[in-house]
From TrEMBL:
Its main location: membrane. This is Rod shape determining protein RodA. It is found in: Membrane. Keywords: Cell shape, Membrane, Transmembrane, Transmembrane helix. It is a multi-pass membrane protein. The keyword Transmembrane applies. The chain crosses the membrane at residues 49-66, 73-91, 119-138, 150-167, 173-191, 198-216, 291-311, 323-345, 357-376.
Length: 392
């Protein structure tokens, strides 16, 4: 009885309840999305429920290890993730077929498909958290040189998985990897004297390239060998109605779906706008059409509560490693949400990034649950540490 009481006191019930709410939202949205004619008799709700059960088992497994053990295991996890990415790159088509122009999945027969990059994101967060925390432990005097060394470590560790992910090619996941690195650099303690010039230069370069794509594509074609058709996603993002039969098809229909939902939506399964694969990347369009501004606001509020909860955990923890890992998880989820919702309403270009905990997808859900499992572990053992004096 005492052991059960200790577990009940230490377990993060608030975070578990948030995940349960996400499961409810996901089930409702997917059950409606799968009524589209293209899916036949496939029951994605049942499959999503199964992956949620697996995800909660992953969280339970994560609670078996405390943060110090994760810190020691970080490099092993990173090596395992890199091994999977390398094997995926070398695997024949029979094991890793190309889907939608990308070789990102292992086919595991009746078990379905496995996307290694979804787990590599969490492994990268663990490894960067270890490297940053140990760097500060061994650095007696902080200087510009030591900050540059830390920046090079973070960049080098991130570059390897990023390179293999971009070779698949998977731009969406590559952007998530960059977002994780960016978020962890911002909280790493590296001086702003280094961060501001570097990020300003990157922003200037990105803005320049975007301007050239829009106003002078012939320059990129002539001097860099880039073909104008390769900018189809940018053009269809800026002017989707001129590309509504090709690259702009999903965006135009997404805008129609969300706009037609108005304030209260059309009701459960009363959709009128057809969007292919709307149970995955465009599940927010289903929510916007059927439940309107109110339903979409509820979903966004749930993500706000999740980010708030993760941020509070990061601030409450007494270990730098825990705080860095929480920052990485926050960066990953925040970017996912901002990019996915943004692409459905034309704020950002379309990329293959799912909406966390709501879009259908086993690998995505398990990868996110693994990341959340780390936060559960940190909250669980942090409380144990706080009350240790009472237990003695």
């Amino acid at each position: 009885m005492e052991t059960r009481q200790k577990f009940a006191d230490k377990f993060d019930w608030g975070l578990a309840f948030l995940l349960f709410l996400f499961f409810i939202v996901s089930s409702i949205a997917i059950s409606s999305a799968q009524t589209s004619g293209q899916y036949g008799e496939i029951n994605f709700v049942f499959k999503q429920a199964f992956w949620y059960v697996v995800g909660f088992c992953i969280i339970g497994f994560a609670l078996l290890f405390d943060p110090e053990q994760y810190k020691r295991l970080a490099w092993y996890a990173y090596g395992f993730g890199m091994l999977l990415l390398i094997l995926l790159f070398l695997a024949p088509e029979s094991i890793a077929p190309e889907k939608n122009g990308a070789k990102s999945w292992f086919e595991l027969g009746p078990l379905g498909a496995l996307q290694p990059s979804e787990f590599m994101k969490t492994f990268l967060i663990l490894t960067l958290g270890r490297v940053i925390s140990i760097h500060h432990e061994v650095t007696v005097r902080k200087t510009l040189q030591t900050d540059f060394q830390l920046l090079l470590k973070i960049g080098g560790i991130t570059f390897l998985p990023l390179a293999f992910i971009m070779l698949q090619p998977d731009l969406g996941t590559g952007l998530v990897i960059i977002a994780i690195m960016t978020g962890m650099i911002l909280v790493s303690g590296i001086t702003w004297k280094i961060i501001v010039p570097i990020y300003s230069g990157i922003a200037l370069l990105g803005g320049t390239i975007l301007s050239l794509v829009i106003w002078a594509p012939e320059f990129l074609e002539k001097y860099l060998g880039v073909k104008q058709y390769q900018f189809g996603r940018i053009y269809s993002w800026l002017d989707p109605y001129n590309y509504k039969e090709l690259e702009g098809y999903h965006l135009v229909n997404s805008l129609k779906a969300i706009g037609s939902g108005q304030i209260f939506g059309k009701g459960f399964q009363d959709r009128e706008v057809y969007i292919p694969e709307n149970h995955t990347d465009f599940v927010f369009s289903v929510i916007g059409e059927e439940y309107g501004f109110i339903g979409a606001s509820v979903v966004i509020s749930l993500f706000f509560l999740l980010i708030y909860h993760l941020t509070k955990t990061s601030l409450d923890t007494k270990e730098p490693f825990n705080a860095y890992v929480c920052a990485g998880v926050i960066s990953m989820i925040t970017f996912h949400v901002f990019q996915n919702i943004g692409m459905t309403i034309q704020v950002l270009p379309i990329t293959g990034i799912p909406l966390p905990f709501i879009s259908y997808g086993g690998s995505s859900l398990m990868g996110n649950m693994l990341a959340i499992g780390l936060v559960f572990s940190m909250r669980f053992y942090h409380k144990n540490y706080m009350f240790s004096s009472d237990e003695s």
